[in-house]
């Protein structure tokens, strides 16, 4: 058995799960245009490399605080099925199936908030995921994060934290990612793959020896 760690947005999904979700919520008039503008501003900061990821994950939860977790699961489960599942890349499904058939342990590792990721993982029959863990009290989100966001170096730290009390080896491990934010995770693995990589990732000298593949 080996570990296989998959980034989610841009790697498994052809697009960004937050964008897809919030634009659908805007269409449903659950979030307004002001929220979407703020989302776009955060996205601009992300591409400029100046995003405060801790601020963003808490911002992302704000529309959902009014919902009970049961209500939120119903809402997001339906959006994932309707809007995100059709965006899952065929190659991602094939590679996940390959690892599953080999009895490898498959993980999604993403900075996206856990209450959304769990529905995407379920759609892919993936039991294990490492995401931004958000606090729940009285069956409602509080808008506060519980642990380090798995972003850049945080992906490696969260993976090692998850595995620290278990007998494991990263020998033979696989990592899949599409952007520079995944490089630390890919370097941790014995086999790192650049999946439909963006230009910035291709230019990074740390990954020049890694295989470039497409899931599309």
UniProtKB/TrEMBL annotation:
Signal peptide: none annotated. Keywords: Hydrolase, Magnesium, Metal-binding. The keyword Hydrolase applies. Pfam families: HAD. Gene3D superfamilies: HAD superfamily/HAD-like, SG protein - dephosphorylation function. It comes from the Bacteria. PANTHER family: PHOSPHATASE RV3661-RELATED, PHOSPHOSERINE PHOSPHATASE. NCBIfam families: HAD-SF-IB, HAD-SF-IB-hyp1. This is Haloacid dehalogenase-like hydrolase. The lineage of its organism: Bacteria, Pseudomonadati, Pseudomonadota, Gammaproteobacteria, Aeromonadales.
């Amino acid at each position: 058995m080996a570990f296989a760690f998959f980034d989610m947005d841009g790697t498994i999904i052809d697009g960004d799960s937050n964008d897809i979700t919030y634009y659908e919520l805007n269409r449903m008039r659950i979030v307004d245009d002001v929220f979407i503008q703020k989302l776009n501003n955060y996205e601009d900061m992300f591409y400029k490399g100046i995003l405060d990821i801790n601020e963003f994950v808490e911002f992302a939860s704000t529309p959902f605080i009014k919902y009970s977790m049961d209500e939120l699961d119903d809402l997001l489960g339906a959006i994932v099925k309707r809007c995100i599942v059709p965006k899952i890349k065929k190659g991602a499904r094939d590679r996940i199936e390959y690892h599953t058939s080999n009895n490898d342990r498959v993980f999604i590792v993403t900075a996206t908030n856990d209450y959304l990721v769990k529905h995407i993982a379920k759609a892919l029959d993936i039991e294990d995921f490492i995401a931004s863990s958000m606090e729940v009290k009285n069956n409602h989100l509080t808008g506060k994060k519980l642990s380090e966001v798995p972003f850049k170096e945080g992906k490696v730290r969260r993976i090692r934290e998850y595995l620290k009390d278990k007998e494991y080896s990263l020998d033979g491990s696989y990592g899949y990612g599409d952007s520079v934010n995944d490089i630390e995770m890919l370097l941790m693995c014995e086999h790192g793959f650049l999946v439909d990589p963006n230009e910035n990732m291709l230019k990074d000298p740390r990954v020049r020896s890694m295989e470039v593949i497409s899931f599309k």
